[in-house]
Design a protein that fits this description.
The protein is an alpha+beta fold. Helix content is 56%, strand content 13%. It has a two-stranded parallel sheet with strand order 1-2.
């Protein structure tokens, strides 16, 4: 199976993070603070980039993402965030 050369990575603005986290089904798996999330996300981004895959940060806005999840019948969780981000880079 061929690995993708580019993948989308959900990214948040600091002012949206608490609101996003509040409606995520997997909020217990997300750091409580934006700063802790950002540090962790940048570490993952670096590891994936070193493996030869380009990470594309996709800004997720709370209202847009909630509407997209409803439209697709998805729970707001990690799988949905990944799908949303990857659809944005593909489209």
């Amino acid at each position: 199976m061929k690995r993708p050369r580019r993948v989308g990575m959900a990214w948040y603005r600091p002012e949206d993070y608490a609101r996003m986290r509040a409606f995520m089904q997997d909020a217990d798996r997300l750091p409580t603070s934006y700063e802790a999330w950002r540090i962790s996300a940048e570490q993952v981004e670096g590891e994936v980039t070193r493996s030869g895959v380009t990470m594309v940060r996709i800004l997720i806005e709370p209202d847009e993402f909630a509407a997209w999840c409803n439209e697709h019948g998805l729970q707001a969780d990690g799988a949905a965030r990944a799908r949303f981000a990857n659809e944005r880079i593909a489209g």
